[in-house]
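[step 3/7] fold_predict: job queued, chain A
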Amino acid sequence: MNIDTMKAMIGKKGGLAQTNRFLILMTAPKVSLINKDPSVLLGGLLSGGGISNLINDPRDISMLAKTVQLPARNLSTTDKQVGKQSMKIPYDYIDGDVAMGFYLTNDMFARRYFADWISCIVDADRYRVGYKKDFCTDIQIIQLNQKNLPIFGVTLENAYPMDMSAIEMDASAESGVQEMTVNFAYDRYRELNASLDSLMSIKDSVLPQIQNTLGLISS
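[step 4/7] structure written:
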């Protein structure tokens, strides 16, 4: 096989998928959308921004996303002796946890967003565990092409953050940007319909849901 044949094959399949072309769509529980930072609250009131400055827009999380994984699926196997040979027999599957990396802004938006979400799951002050229906949400991870059109996607059903990474600080770094990683658990994942029209409809339907959530909180 020569290079021209390979280039023709890749071109026929729409080119190579790019690692930096993706979109994350999620709507966290309402408590994570309420901005509890006193400085932001006071600034919003003094500037006359109204209620809109008091609500964290969940679409900001998508823009701050640095890395994400499409989930893994591994088969669980057991060894079975067949004659003189040992063979692996599959009996179940395990969906791997999904890690997402986010840039941190000076108001620590992403850190507060996920910290408030985790507090919905386990209240560290009262030692109470919340109801699953109140802290889970579906998360869409969508692969985009060079024209930012969706070409593939998965939904993490009933997802929630399990942990947040430590945030490293380094006095020797002159221009480093702070980041954090959040690991998500979920019930299962399913692939979205691979057709372009279907993926576009999902993208267009989720964004209004986020806007509706903001409207419910503001009302």
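[step 5/7] annotate
The two ends are 63 Å apart (CA to CA).
The chain is about 30% helix and 35% strand.
exit 0
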